[in-house]
């Protein structure tokens, strides 16, 4: 490669462009602004000098210096399972992207006796697993959707365990339930635990909130006070959406109350040609 220019300073820059015929990347020195400067020159640089793979109109240069084919896959369908069933492969489907969410854990029971208060911990959120699966050789796959604290799964490919139930609070505080975990996916999430309950002195307690998922929200904690006139305690609230934990129950003066139910799990299947 050569170039010629006068002794007068000039502004030069380099252009890289793919050759549509050979696939090589062409290197060009260009004069942007100058006077009394002669010529520009071009040369070809083999793509192997820049990255591995083949450069052409159907590839792009990835950040790790590899030429990668552009995806030509097309989504042809979407199935959402809120209860267990069987997925049947539609005509033309070769791959699926699956999102599996376990059921949220129940909130813990709130117990108290005498002139006292107690509250349960929040339920943990269900785990999440995301996977991309080649289904060209199968015709149907079993889908399991977990209820409160239950495991959801897509056949034997991937699954997500449910969140644990919050601990019971007996005249005091209690721990939140652990979050569930995704298993077998290319992306697996251990979801958030439920919050612990809080005791404020002898007479006041707040139950723990449920854990959250990307598709559901745990219900907030509930506060009770023995000094409330006619206080009857508070029932825990159910998780909202999918996979969220329920809040703990809150008790005063022996008015024991259960925690809220965890939200059920979910399985989403995106179908690709």
Strand content: 35-45%
> What is the averaged pLDDT score?
84
Report the end-to-end length measured between terminal Cα atoms: 46 Å
Tell me the radius of gyration.
30 Å
Task: Give a quick account of the main beta sheet: strands, pairing sense, barrel closure.
Answer: 5 strands, antiparallel
What is the string of helix and strand elements? EEEEEEEEEEEEEEEEEEEEEEEE
Describe it.
It is a single chain. With 273 residues, the protein is mostly beta strands. It has 2 domains: 11-65, no CATH class; 75-272, no CATH class. 0% of the residues lie in helices and 36% in strands. The chain contains no helices and 24 strands. The chain has strands spanning 11-18, 25-33, 41-45, 59-61, 67-69, 75-81, 85-88, 95-101, 110-111, 117-119, 128-134, 140-144, 152-154, 158-160, 169-170, 182-183, 187-189, 198-200, 204-206, 216-217, 223-225, 240-241, 250-252, 266-272. The strands form 8 sheets. Strands 6-24-8-11-17 form a 5-stranded antiparallel beta sheet, with no helix packed on it. Strands 7-12-13-14-16 form a 5-stranded antiparallel beta sheet, with no helix packed on it. A 3-stranded antiparallel beta sheet has the order 1-2-3, with no helix packed on it. It starts with 10 loop residues before the first strand and ends with a strand. The model is unreliable at 1-13 and 30-35 (pLDDT under 50).
């Amino acid at each position: 490669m050569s170039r010629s220019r006068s002794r007068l300073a000039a502004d030069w820059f380099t252009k890289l462009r793919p050759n549509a015929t050979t696939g090589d990347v062409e290197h060009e020195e260009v004069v942007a602004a100058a006077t009394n400067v002669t010529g520009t020159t071009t040369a070809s640089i083999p793509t192997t000098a820049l990255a591995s793979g083949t450069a052409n109109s159907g590839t792009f240069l990835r950040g790790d210096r590899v030429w990668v084919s552009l995806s030509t896959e097309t989504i042809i369908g979407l199935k959402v399972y809120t209860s267990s069933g069987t997925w049947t492969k539609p005509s033309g489907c070769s791959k699926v992207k699956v999102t599996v969410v376990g059921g949220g854990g129940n909130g813990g029971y709130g117990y108290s006796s005498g002139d006292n208060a107690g509250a349960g911990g929040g339920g943990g959120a269900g785990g999440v697993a995301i996977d991309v699966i080649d289904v060209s050789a199968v015709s149907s796959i079993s889908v399991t959707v977990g209820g409160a604290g239950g495991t959801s799964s897509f056949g034997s490919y991937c699954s997500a365990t449910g969140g644990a139930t919050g601990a019971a609070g007996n005249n005091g505080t209690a721990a939140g339930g652990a979050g569930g975990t995704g298993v077998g996916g290319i992306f697996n999430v251990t979801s958030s635990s439920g919050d612990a309950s809080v005791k404020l002195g002898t007479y006041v307690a707040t139950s723990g909130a449920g854990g959250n998922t990307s598709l559901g929200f745990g219900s907030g904690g509930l506060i009770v006070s023995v000094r409330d006139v006619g206080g009857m305690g508070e029932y825990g609230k159910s998780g909202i959406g999918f996979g969220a934990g329920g809040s703990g129950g809150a008790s005063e003066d022996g008015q024991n109350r259960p925690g809220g139910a965890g939200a059920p799990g979910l399985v989403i299947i995106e179908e690709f040609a």
